[in-house]
Design goal:
This protein has 243 residues and is α/β, with parallel strands linked by helices. The protein contains eight helices and nine strands.
Length: 243
């Protein structure tokens, strides 16, 4: 199954090349698309240099550099759009580029797509493992997902983790809708669109490791905005007012 792994880059220059190396070495059918919003840490330059040093990456690693910061969701959409235009991928994956999401789990998600699911979520809840999170982060994640489950759809346990696998049809469904929310809250918006479209969604437990390389950018403002965003998504989900 020819697969495109989209990596939205957000100041992870220390991790990105190592992660790409691990992904492309693990399976010859995996390609990578890095989407960088002109990160000031030189991520794009690092990936470009790595490509020059590794001729085998020429056909398998794509770098998209955008001129302005547009958030994780916008970066993922840009990678998906590029992949769809290539017309050669049977599966799409989004994952963080800081090793919070282990590439070893890629075959598990892809196997669920092969079994007929439209979407597979590498989930922390209810049976996954979270390593290295401070209590404040655990409380925020618990509250956000509890709110989403109660307001949107109880069939999804983890609305806010970005380790996801999609069929081309699921990606096409997502790209039909204008993005309304920025940051990680877009992950919940995406699931709302997919649920309303009748997509078959599965989940499997993962080990989620807090960033031991790189710095978290989550702030109180983003937390409050995320909780408000979930309420807005739920209203749109139930009222049918999606774009």
């Amino acid at each position: 199954m020819k697969t495109l792994v989209v990596l939205p880059s957000y100041n992870e220059v220390l991790n990105i090349v190592q992660l790409i190396e691990q992904i492309v070495a693990s399976d010859a059918t995996y390609d990578v698309c890095v989407v960088d919003d002109s990160s000031p840490d030189g991520t794009a330059e690092r990936v470009s240099e790595a490509k020059q040093q590794r001729p085998a990456w020429d056909e398998r690693v794509q770098l998209i550099v955008r001129s302005k910061k547009d958030g994780r969701g916008g970066a993922v959409r840009a990678g998906f759009t590029w992949g769809v235009e290539q017309a050669r991928y049977q599966a799409f994956v989004e994952m963080d580029c800081d090793f919070s999401h282990d590439p070893v789990a890629l075959p598990q998600g892809l196997e669920l797509l092969a079994k007929g699911y439209d979407v597979a979520i590498g989930a922390r809840y209810p049976d996954g493992t979270i390593i290295g999170w401070p209590p404040s982060r655990r409380v925020f994640s618990f509250c956000a997902n509890l709110l989403a489950r109660n307001l949107i759809d109880r069939s999804i346990a983890d609305y806010t983790n970005g380790y996801r696998f999609y069929t081309p049809n699921a990606v096409a469904e997502l790209l039909k809708h204008e993005q309304r929310h920025k940051g990680y809250i877009y992950l919940s918006e995406m699931l709302s669109h997919l649920l309303r479209a009748g997509c078959k969604i599965a989940a499997f437990p993962i080990v989620f490791r807090n960033r031991d390389r790189g710095v978290s950018n989550t702030s109180l403002h983003e937390i409050l905005a995320s909780l408000r965003g979930i309420v807005g998504i739920a209203w749109q989900h139930r009222s049918g007012s999606h774009a």
